[in-house]
Amino acid sequence: MQNYFLLAVLTLLSLTGCSLVADRYVEWEAVPPEEFPVLRAVGYAPLSLQPGQNEQHKMLMALQASKLDAYRELAEQVYGQRIDARTSVQQMLVNNEQLQSSVQGVIRGARVVKSYPVGDSYATELELDFRDVYQLYQAQQPQRRIRHVRYY
Description:
It contains three helices and seven strands. It is an alpha+beta fold. The protein has a three-stranded antiparallel sheet. The relative contact order is 0.22.
């Protein structure tokens, strides 16, 4: 009886061992999205309020600030905006109301379309083509799916 049990256990182990040893080849393929949207954002910065020793320095500071504002707007479009609100009521009257917003994210692949003066401000237009973003991320971490599995 004990020999039959031992023989049955060894037979089961050898059969399951064979299935674990079987080798396979997995063929992968890239999965591109069906469409690639293009996002646009415009950032503004006042020229006269910029710190600087002369007009050229103020212009460069406004140019940089408008570019950062445009990047913030792109981040809002891609990642959304976090809103924190707090209201306190005392004796049935609004006593204090606070509202905060924040944006956090990484924008890769955006390009400056143009920067130009608008009155006392500078404007910078950015464009983010998701086809370029897709290609950047494919170079780092390709998204793939199984095309075919072949067992040997």
